[in-house]
Amino acid sequence: ADPEQDSFYYIDEDDGNKTVQVYLTKAPNTVSSMLESDIHFYLYTRRSPAESKLSMNTSNGNWTNFDINSPTKFLVHGFLSSYDSKDFPQGAKNAYVQHFNQQNVNLILVDWKKGARLVVDSQGFKFYGNAAENTNVVANQVVKFITWMINNGKAKLEDMHFIGHSLGAQTCGIASDRFSKANPGGGKFTKITALDPALPCFGDIFSNICNILVGAKNEDRLSPDDADVVHVIHSNPSGFGVYDPVGTADFYLNGVAPVQPGCFPFFIIIKGVLIPVPHSTCSHSRAHQVLTVSIDKSMYFKACTCANMWNLAMETCECQNHIGMGEYTSR
User: Fold this and answer.
1) Smallest Cα–Cα separation from 317: which of 327, 326, 307?
2) Is residue 84 part of a domain?
3) In the list 5, 48, 166, 265, which could disulfide-bond 65, CB 3.0-4.6 Å?
4) Residue 242 within a domain
5) CB burial readout 122-157, b (16+ within 10 A) else e
């Protein structure tokens, strides 16, 4: 690894908020660091909020808690996170249990924490590319899982809603694309909510730098045709999250500025010079925090309608006929 090339800085919240330098590429001489057996699915419902681990086995007694007559939401965490991360997905899960506007809801948390971690080589260099590539493995397992659910009468595709943050958002897009290809003529996801979908290894510039399977093909990225409805909440555009619209409706928190109110720009020192950069883990997390708050229907976020990105950047959008943003948006 070359310390002068192709890296970014990230605050590892699971390691005392330490600032770490992370390389976009995969660790040299490594293959995927995660197996499908490392991916787990955990069920919670409003009626049975205790955790139940699910498997693709009809004899698994935990399926008795699953309510086929209620909507099902898959929550997929992102980089350096796990299914039991406090804010997302646990915070969102708790909000659905407490405030969702239907009597019951199935919440399935996808745990791929082993693959979402940094890979550290013998020299101590840390690599993000392995985690980005592992989204392929997660997506494939999600497709297998929901296919099994449908074939065994556990759920209907039209009742499923996929919610992902960062790399988890890109995973939802990849899974949708692969499910549709496996089920031509009727295999499209109904709804995806993408929370600040990851930019590194998925943007056009980063794809070439990463030089891995993810991002090398446009179909491996979140796109508007991945579901009937693709809602995207951008909170760190051009930083850790994508800048361009990638959904059927894209919401930009406080415009296109990459740093959210209450967060601070990130600075790095290069040859003694303090340089601000748009990458902000605080801002990157704001997308899932806003979704979580919006699950309580009494909390209403107003969104102005922008004709194009120029109007958004110039703050000349039409705000008289606003729409709601979040869980219950009508778009």
Assistant:
1) 307
2) yes
3) 48
4) yes
5) eeebbbbbbbbbbbbbbbbbbbbbbbebbeeebbeb
The alpha carbons of the chain give a radius of gyration, in whole angstroms, of 19
Selection from 85, 76, 91, 77 nearest residue 289 by Cα = 91
Both tokens of 267, joined, read 């600075």
What's the CA gap between 138 and 38, in Å, rounded? 9
pTM over 0.90: yes
Contact 195, 286 (CB under 8 A): no
The domain in which residue 20 lies consists of 7-296
- Domain containing residue 259: CATH number: 3.40.50.1820
Which band of pLDDT confidence, cut at 50, 70 and 90, is reported for residue 19? confident
**So what's the pLDDT on residue 216?**
43
Q: Which amino acid is at 56?
A: M
Name 172's Cβ contacts closer than 8 Å, sequence gap at least 6: 74, 76, 162, 163, 164, 189, 192, 194, 222, 226
For 287, the enclosing helix (H) or strand (E) is helix 281-294
Rounded Cα–Cα distance for residues 54 and 41 (Å): 5
In a domain, 325, yes or no: no
**Residues in CB range of 142: below 8 A, 6 or more apart:** 74, 76, 110, 171, 175
Distance CA 119, CA 109 (A): 23
* Tally of domains in the chain: 1
Residue owning tokens 């045709």: 225
Q: Does residue 99 carry a pLDDT above 70?
A: yes
- Does residue 329 fall inside a structural domain? no
